[in-house]
Each structure stands twice: as structure tokens, then as C-alpha cells.
Amino acid sequence: TLKGLILPIKPEDDLDAEYDVDEAEAFRIEQIYLENLYQFVGHLSSTLEDLEVDALNTSIELTPSTPQYPAVRSLRVAGLFGMPELKVLMHTFPALDRSLTLLIPDDCHRSRIDEIEWFDVHSRNAAAQPDEGKLAPWKRIDRLMCDSQLLYLLALKCPIGHTYLLMGDRSYARKTRDYFVSGLRESRPVRLTLDMLYIESTSDLRFFNGIFPEELGSSLTHLAFGLQYVEPHLGFHTEFGTRQEYRLWSPFVVSVCDRIR
Predict the structure, then answer these.
(1) In what order do the strands lie in the sheet with 56-57?
(2) pLDDT tens, position by position, 198-216
């Protein structure tokens, strides 16, 4: 029984060709719309537990005939296009409870924020989840990996065991900070990892002021804070072997720690 799938999509002029997936252990899917996924993996929908998709667009109109994958418990999307529609994701993958990874391609990062559209997506996703005490498709997710903007847009209400947030340089923008704090306040993670990229010339240390809302005090038990520091003249800092590098790094770390206490 095939339980994990990573399937490369064929060129557009070869969509009628057939794949022999019976003996394969892993396949990769690249550049595909959610409504077209069934033609590749429909015959595996009853057993497939782990699915990895390179590029997926979930912005579709949900209908009673929209295919479901009732066995999928882990989903990884390396490139998410369009806005995340939670109603579509919960319908398509109703049993998901292990891992959800949603990443944004570098060339499609949401550097421009439409506040009205973001609020509408957030509101739709919040409304798509039943109130506490009622039966919900997603009762728990063991591990969520996304960026701080997607955390806000998803508006997840179910318990999350480990929230892993990827934060690029754009995450330090003044507008995105409010979305970051709001996402943490609503999701209340138990374990939180912040994987951050900080560029000396463009990032703003004021981002760290009051970064953790008071609501986390009753839920957060573990915090991991990973940081890649970039100084324009020296590049990425992962190991420090010179006094000059240490002089740049040490004050920065002290400053950050003072702001998150």
C-alpha cells in the first residue's frame, strides 16, 4: 500500500501520458491546481497518508463533488499560490492531524498587503471552523510550519503541538508585525520555534518589542529562537571566527533578548 507520495508533474504537452506508480515509493507533484490533483493520485486517495506538493493553488470553488483524500494526515506544500482557503483544505484533507507545512515561493512572497483582502480571508477561515465543543474536521495538528503571515491568514482554532514560523526579512515590516502578534494570540502554540532572517540594513529591532502577547502565558511551554544575521558587507553569519564578526553579533543578540523578555 502506497502511503507517501511525491510526484513530478509532466510537461503540459504530455498530460495524457500514464504513470506507473504501483512500484514507486515516492513521487513529487509540481505546479498544479488542487482541482487537478485527483487525476494524478485519485486512485490512491483511500490509502495515501503523506503528500508533498511542490506548487499548489488552493483557490478553488468548493462543491459537493470536490475530491477528498480521507487518509492524508500530513501535507507539505513547498510553494503555495493564491490565498489559503481553510474550508477547501479541511474538506480535501479531513483527517489531517500530523503535519501541515505551507511555504510561499521566494518570487511570490506577499510583500504587498491588501488589508481588506487579508481581513476577509482571515474572517472566512475563522468562520469555516466550528465553535469549541462541536465536531471539527481538524481536531489537532501536531506540527504547523509556515510564515507569520500565513499563521494569521489560516486563523486555526484547533490545538497545535509545535508551531514553526519561518520569518524572512519582509516579516519585519510594520504592518506584518500586527498580523504576527494576532496569529500567536489566536493559535496559542504550546511549542514555538521562530526561524528568522535579519538583515542589518533593512530589518528593524523594534519588531521585537512586545512580540509575545499575554495570552501565550497560559499555553507556551517551549520557545526556540533561531536567527540568521546578515551584515551587508560581511554576508550571512552562522559561525563567527573573528573579533570583528563577534562585535557585530554580540550587541545584536543582547538587544534582541532584552526585547523579548
Answers:
(1) 32-33, 56-57, 80-81
(2) 776 666 677 777 788 888 8
